[in-house]
Write a structure and sequence with these properties.
6-stranded antiparallel β-barrel, alpha+beta, about 290 residues, about 25% strand, 2 domains, 6-stranded antiparallel barrel, single chain, Thrombin, subunit H
């Protein structure tokens, strides 16, 4: 008990000395009490200053993070928008290239055409049909041949007012008179059961001259397809029935799985009248 009283008394004395020193020091002088307080409180002040600085830095960093996140979201949005625009530009460029090729083909060809857009396709594997956005009001008729700049596509089998159905070369019911362009050997183009990519050319003669790489065109012997339309290229030659039959496998010239625009043949162009030369027309002599 006496020990505790001694410690308390000593503390009171020291505190009195410190307070006295603080109240009696002259301006500009550092008293003994101030020196004791400074040395005692200095570590705590350092810690408090560090904590204050860290808090200020953290608040500033948090604000900067929020700003950066907002800018990042904005940039992501712009990037997605740019990707969409870039995709549209590429699509327009490819479409323009396809249309340019079709235009060049129509200008070089001796046929008249009705251009059409593919708007639908048969969903099953047994038939190969497409829908196009041209019909009776556009002049489309049944059995019109359908082509692209690459080659033959098929023929029109059904016509409504504004839409028509086209049977492709690869349909199991398709039959087309054809011949080897080089040798003029003729046959019938069809599709083998289960075959969806290659055409089957059954030649009329077992002695037909046909080799891999030959071009196959329409023969013009039927009433639907005019002569000379490119069907495809021979990729294999085979014989069957003891050598009595010869046939060839033909890869279509047109990619029938990626049709977007087609041309319907609407007859032959009328010849352009020749211009009079040298200013002398018929009966322009003396």
């Amino acid at each position: 008990m006496r020990y505790r009283r001694t410690i308390l008394a000593s503390f009171i004395v020291v505190l009195s000395v410190v307070l006295t020193s603080l109240t009696t020091r002259r301006s500009g002088d550092i008293t003994w009490g101030e020196r004791v307080l400074n040395e005692t409180l200095a570590p705590a002040m350092v810690i408090l200053e560090a904590a204050r600085s860290w808090t200020a830095d953290s608040v500033e960093a948090l604000a900067e993070f929020k700003t950066l996140r907002a800018e990042n979201e904005e940039l992501r949005g712009l990037l997605e928008k740019y990707k969409g625009v870039e995709s549209e530009v590429l699509e327009l460029r490819e479409e323009n290239e396809r249309l340019r090729r079709l235009l060049d083909f129509t200008e070089r060809s001796s046929f008249r055409f009705i251009p059409a857009q593919v708007i639908g396709r048969s969903p099953d594997n047994w038939s190969s049909l497409i829908k196009v956005d041209k019909g009776a009001i556009h002049g489309v008729r049944k059995d019109m041949p359908v082509v692209t700049d690459a080659g033959l596509v098929g023929r029109v089998i059904q016509v409504s007012r504004t839409v028509s159905t086209v049977m492709l070369l690869t349909d199991r019911e398709s039959r087309i008179g054809a011949m080897v362009q080089r040798s003029r050997d003729a046959g019938i183009i069809s599709t083998e059961l289960g075959e969806t990519r290659l055409l089957h050319l059954r030649l009329f003669s077992a002695e037909a001259d046909v080799v891999i790489g030959d071009r196959v065109i329409t023969s013009g012997l039927g009433v639907v397809f005019p002569e000379g339309l490119l069907i495809g290229q021979v990729v294999a030659v085979r014989t069957g029935e003891g050598g009595l039959v010869k046939y060839a496998l033909v890869e279509p010239a047109t990619n029938l799985d990626r049709l977007e625009e087609v041309l319907l043949i609407d007859g032959v162009k009328e010849p352009v009248p020749a211009k009079d030369g040298g200013g002398q027309g018929q009966g322009g002599g003396r």
